[in-house]
Structures are given as structure tokens and as C-alpha cells.
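Entry type: protein chain
Record version: 2
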Amino acid sequence: MRRRVFLFSGLAGTALLRAQRGPARGKELIGKIIYALGGDAFRNMQSRVESGRAYSFYNEQLSGLSIARIYTRYLRPEETPPLGAIYMEQRQVFGKKQDVAALFTAKTAYEITFRGARDLGEERVQQFHETTLHDVFYMLRIRLDEPGFGYDALGPDVVENQSVEGIDFYDNANRQVTVWFNRTTLLPIKQRFLHFDEKVSARREEITRYSKYRDIGNGVMWPFDIQRERDGEKIYQMFSEQAKAGEPLDAAMFQLPPGITIINNTKKK
């Protein structure tokens, strides 16, 4: 009788574990996660403006600090988005006088100063693409309907001293991102992905942590503390003081000003 009880308990435990994992559980969680992030207001968010302090690090030591304002605009995806398409533009403005900017679109990356605009090169465009395509908020906002895009629930766990639900996101280009969501709030707290860096001929681990969520308009929840690390070393932190969803942004903000000097760039970065 005891053996039968143990067998029944084991089968029940296995069934419960299966119910907590896989695509069906993933779909159920995604619906709840989007609701926690603001529901339709999040999925239809057209723009976002964040302002605060941006820190950069090298060998775990602070190497730069700047007042930053980040303007993000989402574009309308095609009915059937092609694999890896980017539907987001971003203008990053730095300094108290906001006299230095970085402009990223689907096809270009520029640094803009009083001297003119300097093409940052294809490498920086690709870096923007990969960072965007792996970002959990972009995936939930844009990529869920992309052909070949999917997700699997990993089941409950404990990460960063928090009870979490884990989900693996993946696409047909072999991108995979693991994201952990707080089990109570269902807001993202950490994401992780690996990529191959041709410069060092090695795989690198990219981790981003999210915390200090606030309502930035119409119930949209956004982290005011974003920290990134590479191969275990902290490389970036953005601590927002203000953020707003749905601010009207002129399309010209994401274009080079007419007549601006294009700086001859012999050294691509």
C-alpha cells in the first residue's frame, strides 16, 4: 500500500511539474505578464521618454556618468513581420546642455555633436539590432506575433532572492533569451542571453536586471533602475528620475537635421 501511495504521489508530482512548464503554460503566463505591464496600454504604447542618470563601468569601476534623456518611438509592424525586423527608433541625448546625441534606427547609427553627424558604422547598427531583439519589453511589445517566435515556461524557481517564473523566448534565427518574472507582480526582474562576439571569438553572456517599477502613464509599468553586465562584470546602469509613456514625438527627432555636416568617418566603431 505504501508503495502505491509513493507511486501515486510521484505521478501527481510529475503531472504538476509538466503543467508548470511548456508552451501552454508559457502562453498563460504571457497573458498575465502583459496585463501586469499595463495590458493594451503597454501593447499599444507608441513612445516613451526616460530621463535620469546613466553610468558606464569598466572592470567594475565607474568610468562615466552623464545626465541622459532617452526618446523611444515604436513603429507599426507589418501584418506578417519578417524575421528580425526592427520596429523601434531611439534618440539618446547626453549632458546637461543635451549637446551630444546618439541616433539609432533600423538601418543607421549616428553620433551627433556641434561638429556634425558621425556614422557609427554597421557594427553599431547590428549591436542595436541584437540588443533590441533580445530585450524582454521589445519582445512583449512587438515580437509576439512574429513568425517563428515562441516561448516555453520553465516553471517556478528562486532568482535574485525572489520567487519567480522563468520563460525561454526563442526565434528561427537561434536567438534565445531566458527571462525571470516575479511570481507575485509578474514583472521582469532579470534576463539572460548568450551571443558570439567575433572580436574575441568567444560566446559572451549578457545579463540585465530590472527593478523599481513605476506607473509611467495609463497603467504602463516601467523599471526605473536598469543594470547590465557582460560576462559577470557590470557595464551600464540607467537610473531614471522621470519616465512617461505616450508622449507625442516628432518623426524628425529620429532623422538627421537637414543640412547637417556628415563627418568623414575613417575609423568605424
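Comment: The two ends are 70 Å apart (CA to CA).
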